[in-house]
Amino acid sequence: MLIDLTKLLSQDNTIQQMEVPLELTHFKRAKGEQYKFLEKSPVALVLEHEKDQVVKISGHCSVVCMVPCARCLTPVREAIDLDFEHRVDVMHLDADEDESEMMNCITEEKCLDVDQLVHNEILIHWPLRVLCREDCKGICTVCGRNLNEGPCSCDQENLDPRMAAFREIFSNFKEV
Fold first, then answer.
1. Closest C-alpha among 93, 14, 90, 86 to residue 50
2. Taking burial as the number of CB atoms within 10 A of a residue's CB, which of 17, 107, 160, 161 is the most buried?
3. Helices (H), 18-175
4. Distance between CA atoms of 82 and 86, rounded to whole angstroms?
5. Is 47 helix (H, G, I), strand (E, B) or coil?
6. First-to-last CA distance in the chain?
7. What pLDDT digit, counting tens, does each position of 53-96 carry?
8. What integer best gives the mean pLDDT of the chain?
9. pLDDT of 88-106, one tens digit each?
10. d(C-alpha 144, C-alpha 33), whole Å
11. Helix %, strand %, coil % for the chain, to 5?
């Protein structure tokens, strides 16, 4: 959704509060991975014209999507709450390195692209690692079985020859 900022920029110290629907249906990462939103809240925005062409953009939104567990690939429900605040000079978007991510959120026609803003915020707040549970055992590297569902019958002794030196050290010092 695009929000026209020209009316806001016409008067100093103007504040607009609004709640706009989030039109994004999924989040797409740079690697091509897509995560469909199971739930999404409207974006609560506060737009404040501070001086000249500087606008303070603050807001809140939350989304829920399914993300695969980093160890066993089981889908995990992940809620992401977004609270954000940016100060943007609409006339000099490329001048401030701290707000360079806002360059693609403000169009040349002085419109705020809310979906792009939320996408950028999700990208910043995306969890580094999602686990289905803290003690997730992962998957067997031989057969691919989810080890949380039970052990497999694969030979675990001959896994990685690069680890043979460590295996020998641990077998010599079992009491450690």
1. 14
2. 107
3. 114-125, 164-172
4. 13
5. strand
6. 60
7. 888 899 999 999 999 999 999 999 999 999 999 988 877 666 55
8. 85
9. 887 766 655 455 567 778 8
10. 21
11. 20, 35, 45
